[in-house]
Amino acid sequence: MSSDTHVMEFRVLVETNNPPGPDVLDIDGMSWTLTPPLDIESATIPPYVCISYTWGDQRDRNPLRPTVEMSINTLRVVRAVVSQFSGKAIWIDAFSIPTDPLRKRATLESLGYIFSNAEAVVAVLSAESAYAIQRIDALLTGVQPGHAPSEVPSDVLDVLDMDAWIRSVWTYQEVVNSRELYFIMGTGPSTRVVEGEHFLNILGHYYTIFTRSHHTKSLAIQAEYPYVNSILDLLAEWQMQQSHSVMSIMSGMNHRVWTTPVNYFYSVIGSITTQPSRRPVQSSVEDLAEKTMVISETKGDFSFIFAALPRDIRPGNRWRPQPGVLNSILTSHPWGYRQSARRVDGGVVLENVVVLPTTDEEGEMSEEAKRYLSDLISSNLFGDDLDDKNIAIEAYHIFKKLGFLGPEEWYMTTDGYFYPFESLPNGRGRRICISGELRWVFGAPGLALVEYEGDMCYTPGIHLGLVRSELSEILLH
């Protein structure tokens, strides 16, 4: 391995014949030790699995890293994985992440590489969540397609929505990068293993049945069970094994739990790239946010432009979010692989967009857009008893429940309504730029452009309505 302190460190737990000592763990009668740092460019890395779990609040002495503590859960989850996945080396954060600050940062920036190269990721759920999944499985057993079980209780979803692993910020990149995914249900004597696809199928099926049985609006249930909805979206992305936009990552991270903002960025970076870090940045929010956006740009994805943040004030970068935690405009999952753009002198050209004036400056909403909104009303996506006049306000209240932080104002365009993240300045030439590559079932993310006091101002927001197929591009400064 390179002596460069700026590169990641890769070490795994392996079985050993070494006698008991300070560098040997006894796991149910078997001896395990931590390998020396391995050369990731060589073929000497043993087949390994990554453990995905939560630390909780309680700490214990770390037998292999005596200068730092570990979670009281660490040895318990290692035992559970060893009992079910014999013969595999194990990567687990408490032992595998180095303590040297530079190597630690490089390793944390390389989590996408580590998890994507594992043979499998093994998630360990709490006993309460394991029991909830077991109950769901039992409730669905023998139910014919198109039918519902005799009872559809909400308490199982309540338990899962409170689960620390499902809520964790680390979970996103650990799942989305996995080749194979398994869930270990509990860490006691009745431990069992559930494949990731089966977990998705039974939870997704039950979630759909629950929505129908309780006559719940599909967007309203997203607000009621945001973490269950988020894990279903995440598992669907994992199952499709396709690239995902940074905006979909942002929406999946929006309400997740982290102890410090840098953990948010390490998980985001690991979700965007599976390349090992060669030059880690300082662990400040600003540096990590900047690195996240640069990596995304390098991949041709500028969808971070729709982050719910004020804009940069630097000339040529006024379209860009200020470096900070990249909160999504909504927690609702957007579909699409990227927002295309290209850098030019003095700014960026946003590609594959629809550019519309607001109707107070030019015309009314088109009949085609009115029909689209009427279809949304008929679908009960936002609720019952809606008409063309109150869909705008009802949608706003639903958006608020889905994490939207904008003011209670919206602007009519020829194709629908636009809800800005911040109040728009009273300037000239107001236009709404709508993504043609990223979609929600009810519209798409967008950007308002207003000329104010000689400068162009940019504000992200939500477009509710029709997204036309005739796309163009626009220069942003």
From TrEMBL:
Pfam families: HET. Transmembrane segments: none annotated. Residues 48-174 form the Heterokaryon incompatibility domain. InterPro entries: HET, HetReg/Transcr_Mod. This is Heterokaryon incompatibility domain-containing protein. It comes from Obba rivulosa.
